[in-house]
Specification:
This protein is an alpha/beta fold. The chain is built from 8 helices and 9 strands. Helix 7 packs across helix 8.
């Protein structure tokens, strides 16, 4: 029996709702063994981020090399990268180890509104990591920021931005519609051949901390299990929608609480 393994390269969330902690919970919930390489420590809770301590780039490299040299990594998820030096280290390591699947969540701003990526690092993310990605998973504001454009306001604009993001070198783009409006939250999976709209009922809850991290991790988990990209995204969308719908079963913190990663179990 082969155990599916996924690696998350991201920042740590001390409150446990997002980042590395959310990624590992997601992998476990979906039956995948999770490994991690931590790029930054954050002091944060459901109300916001009060501090960021970046991990030295050479130690990010050491973590990634340690994992790849021993574990059979089926997919990699990249979240918060924090700084240019870490982006360089991650890009070099991925080029060296050549994993089959790379899911890049271009994390720039936390649910609380706190900035998680230095402005000078956005260009490095755009030019060095996006070309290595099997799929990138920006939300509507992140897609706009990567393209230096206004936030897309229609399906046509979202599809157009998806194609311009493809031109940066990734193989597919999943633009998340959680920041949109209306009764449904629609994500758009765009590749060179197709655009697939994936809709789910919009859930009225403030407990959405870690949603973006967890969705990209769910896609990585499904890819690690051997699913193709479209089915991986469909499965991840169904799982995250249920996790958001179950979020109010929790009472954690006083701000944007976490989603319920283990809604299938309790």
């Amino acid at each position: 029996m082969t155990t599916p393994v996924a690696l998350t390269i991201a920042g740590s969330d001390s409150s446990g709702g997002a980042g590395i902690q959310a990624d590992l919970k997601t992998f476990a919930a979906l039956g995948v063994y999770g490994a991690s390489a931590i790029t930054a420590l954050t002091a944060q809770n459901t109300r916001g981020v009060t501090g960021i301590h970046a991990v030295p780039a050479e130690f990010v490299t050491a973590q990634i090399d340690a994992v790849f040299s021993d574990l059979d990594i089926g997919a990699v998820k990249i979240g918060m990268v924090a700084q240019v030096a870490s982006i360089d280290a991650i890009a070099a390591a991925l080029s060296r180890w050549a994993p089959g699947h790379v899911v890049l969540d271009p994390v720039m701003v936390a649910t609380s509104g706190d900035r998680l990526l230095a402005s000078e690092a956005v260009d490095a993310l755009r030019t060095k990591l996006i070309p290595l990605a099997s799929v990138i998973t920006p939300n509507l504001p992140e897609a706009a920021a990567l393209l230096d454009e206004p936030v897309a306001a229609s399906e046509a604009e979202i599809e157009s931005q998806g194609h311009r993001l493809l031109a940066l070198g990734c193989r597919a783009v999943l633009i998340k519609g959680g920041h949109g409006e209306g009764a449904e939250s629609t994500d758009y999976l765009v590749d060179a051949q197709n655009t697939i709209a994936l809709a789910a009922p919009r859930v009225a809850t403030r407990n959405t901390h870690g949603t973006g991290c967890s969705l990209s991790s769910a896609v990585a988990a499904e890819l690690a299990k051997g699913e193709d990209l479209e089915l991986a995204v469909r499965n991840a969308k169904a799982w995250i929608s249920a996790a958001i719908a179950a979020a109010d079963r929790f009472s954690v913190g006083h701000g944007h609480g976490p989603i319920h990663h283990f809604h299938r179990f309790y």
